[in-house]
């Protein structure tokens, strides 16, 4: 060919904080190692690598010999390393001081371990916000990569994109390389000749020597479903590297640094807030995401998708914090912990030397994967959320060491989640309780500091846009001679519509319910039936802090609401609950007082729901012990006769929670809360919590009152 084109192949390899050790090991064995071993057989080829901090640290501990392979390929000129936030945070949504620290720390880590000078960064999930140039430049970076979709959203023609573009903010400049979406979908899923045809077409259209970029997940080369056999056993990567080697006269592999040093920018650009196209759809509420998908299908059928695609956009990443309240809460908890850590440590330059342990734990809790959900499990994976909370609790526990008030309980009001309504924190050296008066006065977080475990790390069942596809059961496959990517795969198993159960609000602890009758079985209860006839569970409650009494601290919550029994006038009810934490004991009480302010007696069943999480509900070391000493697992449902006490035991995490009731309930309802979500392997049913709800028969005469008392004690 008369014209040449340069090709930069970049791989982003990552495993999240808290992922299972066997997943790291599998990724190393079937993806990371064979890719570099294959590359080593083609000395004329070069690749740009980004390995996240969690993965590098795991490799350093478990397979230190892999660093020797890095060093050998670096010496041969076959590798270039990029940096970024060390623990793979989404840079714009964590505190700026942490973004700067993580970027600088990773650059230093790569310099010390591999002797490389980091010039650019992998931008986590390619999430771009216009203020990033200042942050990236201050951290010492010259370039990043984002999708060509970002450029389409700014009015650029994807067919004309090449090399890199300059952007700036507040006088700071950054260079941006556009990633080819078409290449992302071709490699490694389509035949090698089809990929070469794409390069030939680009070489004809673009200036001589123009550079094209493919930067994408390294796990595509072996770890995504079916790709190990396709890429290695069937020889796709060997054929691809052979083709690149044999076509070097017109298709030259290059690096980001080489293009920066040899070519001027292709132009200037100011990108809107964006990520790759799929992310925008995932971040939308389910109904809106369905409409976006329908529009895409319609435009494709009408032959107008190419024309209109640049103007099709969903939401942006921050909307996950609204779409999933559990994620929003966890994110604001992380920001709160960041403030505590930096107040304690001051403004020292922690990008050099050994990290203070509270700061390291904080940074680990900023790993992005557990905060959102798309094609992978993410937020739906309990072990990833657990890792985030464990790191946050550990960081705060380290800050508490040596505190003079360690044995005393504290009560404070603060707007933790920044929704304009205060939350209440009750805490001491053993326990942290966070109470949300605006959401039924529910306890949204219960931290046992000894075991570093949040017992209310739950996730509600909610509608997802892909549930509609699951009811259709349409199987997906790649084109003939190709392998389907996870974006092309669909659901081979058809699920009936009744499989999907949706919760009306997050599954937290200490919500109050009123029923006309008992549930007939646990399956009915798991479908949120019978209907709650009160308006207390998710409504606003008035609140006040209780003046500390010795080592105790607490809050008083009240709501004047109503109970709407069938065939009767609504009954006005004043409900009060007082929550008191006993400092240093691991125990707290919930003291209820209800007053019937109506003209008719109130006859109903009163229930208090407790949603608790355990990791591995089928593990015999985890379960429920009833008042008679009998034990049962938490992965099954049942209706048990009421008892004055029961205990959720968790020998795996070394924490038990005992419940004591006055008076004794008539019935205890137990059922597992399981979500249905998508992942790279298809349909996942995932245990998220166990709902435990004691029920009392209730009869309160007009203008009369009745009381209940619950005592919860943590043992760890």
UniProtKB/TrEMBL annotation:
Stated family: Belongs to the glycosyl hydrolase 57 family.
Ranges of residues in domain Glycoside hydrolase family 57 N-terminal: 24-272
Protein name per its UniProtKB record: 4-alpha-glucanotransferase
Keywords, in A-Z order: Carbohydrate metabolism
GO MF annotation: an example: carbohydrate binding
Family matches, as Pfam families: AmyA-A_glucT_m, AmyA-gluTrfs_C, Glyco_hydro_57
Listed SUPFAM superfamilies: Families 57/38 glycoside transferase middle domain, Galactose mutarotase-like, Glycoside hydrolase/deacetylase
Species assigned in the record: Candidatus Glassbacteria bacterium RIFCSPLOWO2_12_FULL_58_11
Domain Alpha-amylase/4-alpha-glucanotransferase central: start-end pairs: 316-399
PANTHER family, per database record: ALPHA-AMYLASE-RELATED, ALPHA-AMYLASE-RELATED-RELATED
